[in-house]
Amino acid sequence: MYKLLRSLAACAAAILAALPAQASPQASFNTATGLLTMSRVDLSGNVAYTDVVIRIGDFGQIAVDDPGVGDRIAFDLDSFTLRLPSVSVDGQPYSKVSLRGLAFTLESIGVQVDAGTSGGYDLDLAVTASGIALPTVRIENIEKPASQAEFCSDDVYAQFQQNVQGYSGSWRVTGCSFNGSVGNISAQLTVTSPFSMSLPYAVIYTYSAR
Fold it and tell me: pTM value?
């Protein structure tokens, strides 16, 4: 799990999209833009994503006060149903909303975590892009890597090479270290579409026991 949390998708989200921080309610929808912003989404199985933004094209079948909605935002891949425990629509709150058969496009995404897994540590991600410090992101209750070799393993970087948040480009990690509680990664983000940009940045991963 910590390898996925270490993925540079988290940094791209902060650099390219300035995603909103987690807040209550867990989701908000803007009718003017068609954007639904969610603090965390659990997928079928044991995978979840933080800071997810989608653009809804068709709501499908809408239900409010749906007893099938739990206490977490969840997306069922089999029925293509999104379940929202709480959502604000232009400031108006609604509870236990489900959208069955909705059509949407993914606008941005934060980091991937293992849903329902307890790791005993909180992780603070501090990103500096081109010398500019971005807001720190906290991910709670995760595992901590056991060694620098595990922290610096590059087996997950390839999945972010093609497209993140609608931007095409590539990653290049230029440095990595881990001392048991603090990790440092420096990298170069190159965007090729819809515009060209090369952006150096650094990320500090600070793990603290709960």
Answer: 0.47
